[in-house]
Write the structure tokens for this entry.
Amino acid sequence: MPRINVLPKHIADLIAAGEVVERPSSVVKEAVENSIDAGATIITVEIQHGGITYIRITDNGCGILRDDIRNAFVSHATSKIATADDLNAIATLGFRGEALASVSAVAKVEVLTKSRDEDMGTHYRIEGGEEILLDDAGCPDGTTLIVRDLFFNTPARMKFLKKDVSEANAVAGVIDRVALSHPEISFRFIRDGKETLLTPGDGKLTSAIYAVFGKEFANSLIEIDYSLNGISAKGYISKPVYSRANRNMQMFFLNSRLVKTQTGSAALTESYKNSIMAGKFPACVINLTVPNETVDVNVHPSKLEVRFANEKAVYDCIYYGVKNALNKEKERPQVELEKILSNPKFAKPQMFMPEKAEQISFSPAKQEIKFQSAKTETKPEIQKNETKFQVKEIDSAEIFTNAHFAQPEVVYETKNNKPDAEPSFSKPKVTLYTPPETVKEEILPVEEDVAEEIFVEEIPQVIEKEIKPVPDFKIIGEAFKTYIFAECEGKLMIIDKHAAHERMIYNQLKNSTDGIYMQSLMVPVTVTLSKEEYDVIINNLDTLEKAGFSVEAFGTSSVIVRECPSVIEAADVENLLVETATYLLQNKNELIGEKLDWIFHSSACRAAIKAGDKTDRYELEVFTAKLLADESVRYCPHGRPVLAELTRRELEKFFGRIQ
């Protein structure tokens, strides 16, 4: 039987570090929480290369006494708790006493600290759990923690780290959430020498939200302030029209501690019922305040999971608080028409009189606009470098008389090639060409013997494309503004117009050999994302470009969309990009072709005509003809049928006309 050995301290520390320190963001989280517990009001975080090679956290907290600096790096050494009863009412972010010991076991750590009661600061260095230096140092009150070469002595852990950009975004996400949980603290985040976040620390949650997520997200929120049964919920929720495709922007804080709570998420979703579409989720930044003795935060080393003594009370507080906030938002200001109509200003509105019209002349050189009454016969003086604009009435007939439109000519082949013969429509051909008169006008004068040769070369080749004959059909009508009923070759066809149109658009996007037709947005769309969503979008810019989207980074948590496929409306761009980010997060290892296929599916679904949209008879006829001419449009991209057929015999058998 194997002997039981007591592991050496450095091996035990490496094992413990695996539970606490997973990546650079774990180090930042633990260190920043210590700074908050130390009473800091200003915290600066600086990283390089995603935090793998360099992390520095500086605060103006209470500092560490020189006599305690060694104990701070010993496992289970903490100033937060002293007795077992303290575990029943934990009020601090940290309490385990494992953070500094775990970090020092897998990195090179340096500390500069000074308490307010000491005249001289302390400089301490520890690498791989071994003390290197303890000396005096001149430094301000507070603590500066520097972590270099994370996982330098555990190469296996280094292999699991992601790219520098991904690790840096993970660190940024930690700083964002901590800044939102403590708006009274000013946070500054420096990433590879560039400041990417600075919160004012004025105690206003709106200021922190504005600094983290930007103006557009901050303006789309509703305030919530509600208390019930000793539990309070304060913060902000998103308006129903700004719902998202995932829950990544739902942030719950418990006594200013970031937590993951299924109870809070369920209460939030239920309170928005009948206010947002199915499959959409609201965003929120809510801080729950509960008595410390009614919650257990000592569940997991990451301290993200908690247990409530009474989950029903927490659920009710969030549910009713959000409901009240939404009901207040639905209230609209009342307009009293009687007071408005009684105002003499609106009793007799002044009508526009033609004889009082004024002529306007604009001077581009001097940027001046001159007005002159129409009754005055004196002509305005024309200054130098002045451009005069005149308006001339033109008959609408002149526009079409003077316009020249080159239209395609449709030529049908006949069986005997005689003009008066009956045309055969079995194989129609569309012939597109430039009229000879147009080409002749553009040719420069040349000698007669070569003129004919040049003319032949300038005429483009005739493009002939066979069109599949469309069987005779008759539109009967439309049911529920969703299903098209048509009679064709003795059959009754029922067409799902959304599913059929979705397949048509999908085929158009997927089969675009010359590239997808893109449209430049007049007003680029700014999309606010979580740090995880932002990271996955930035890493898949090439895939999005192949799908027809021109996306650029816009800050640290937003992207800007300048171009999108021409079939997509600008109003759908934001939701589509968020859905794409959710898919890419869940399917990071998929091939590029599969990712493009999904984006085409989602784009086609949004661009297709919706069930319930009104469609006139001419559109129904054109749509049905296009469907019957394309045999590939029989199933939607999700695999649902788009067309159902019912023969006359089946109908007569159903009604008992035949046996």
